[in-house]
Design a protein that fits this description.
By secondary structure, the protein is an alpha/beta fold. The protein is built from six helices and nine strands, in the order H-E-E-H-E-H-E-H-E-H-E-E-H-E-E. It has one domain: 3-Layer(aba) Sandwich (Glycerol-3-phosphate (1)-acyltransferase), CATH 3.40.1130.10. The strands form two sheets. Strands 1-7-6-2-5-3-4 form a seven-stranded mixed β-sheet. The chain has a two-stranded antiparallel ribbon with strand order 8-9.
Length: 245
């Protein structure tokens, strides 16, 4: 499956539409319904970044844009594109489709296009909504991988309150983290920061994907914990294996 995304979503007029929606629709809703408080906005980098957050509810994606006041595109599972109205909506606001069981090369090319347009990428390191109060879910290497391969910093963002109706929502933005070659190390730095920002405990530290080096390639690929992905002939970019998402 070729990644679905709309390159025009990152154009200046559409970027303006995106930010107007965030500032004048979602921001007032979060303030009115959840007494939104954002702490640490001064930590948001001037350039592009990978926003990495814990995940509590479906309202978290627009919340990250409101909290950072920056245009952020999200990776959306391919199944969402089977819903006609929803498909049009998420394409309009810059989402990029991903097959979580077998990410396609076209997804990574779409992300590079998005970064070149000056947008940032939003990812939830737990991979899905966490339903265990007080403890972060097991992390995935996707955020560290995208930050390193696109040479942008990671911005840890801790969210509390969106899992409870009408509860006060607090967003704490941590200091940017520079990605290192060791994706495992970078991933746990993110988790430690999110633990401090949310007050949630860290999950057991399990071995994450290893890194197979392929000299001369634009992007390297993490693999599952059992084996590293081998490079596909003729491809400059590879995708992380499904266990790293």
């Amino acid at each position: 499956m070729v990644a679905l995304f709309d390159p025009q979503a990152y154009s200046p007029p559409r970027t303006m539409l995106y930010m107007v929606t965030a500032r004048f629709l979602f921001a007032p809703l979060f303030i009115l319904c959840h007494r939104l408080s954002v702490i640490g906005r001064e930590n948001v980098p001037k350039g592009s970044f990978v926003a990495v957050s814990n995940h509590l509810s479906n309202s978290d994606p627009p919340l990250l844009t409101v909290a950072t006041d920056r245009p952020i595109a999200f990776l959306a599972k391919k199944e969402l594109y089977d819903v006609p109205v929803l498909k049009d909506l998420i394409l309009t606001y810059g989402a990029i489709s991903v097959d979580r069981s077998s990410p396609e090369l076209s997804t990574f090319k779409a992300v590079k296009h998005m970064f070149r347009a000056g947008w940032s990428l939003g990812m939830f390191i737990e991979g899905t909504r966490n339903k265990t109060p007080g403890v972060l879910g097991q992390p995935h290497q996707g955020p560290a991988y995208f930050a390193r391969s696109n040479r942008v910093p990671l911005l840890p963002i801790g969210i509390t309150g969106t899992d409870r109706p009408w509860a006060k929502v607090v967003v704490r933005i941590g200091r940017p983290i520079e990605p290192s070659k060791d994706l495992d190390e970078t991933t746990w730095k993110i988790m430690e920061s999110l633990s401090q920002l949310t007050g949630s405990a860290l999950p057991p530290k399990e071995s994450l994907a290893c890194l197979e080096s392929h000299p001369g390639e634009e992007m390297e690929s993490p693999s599952s914990s059992s084996a590293c992905l081998e490079s596909a002939p003729g491809e400059q970019m590879e995708s992380p294996a499904k266990n790293s998402w």
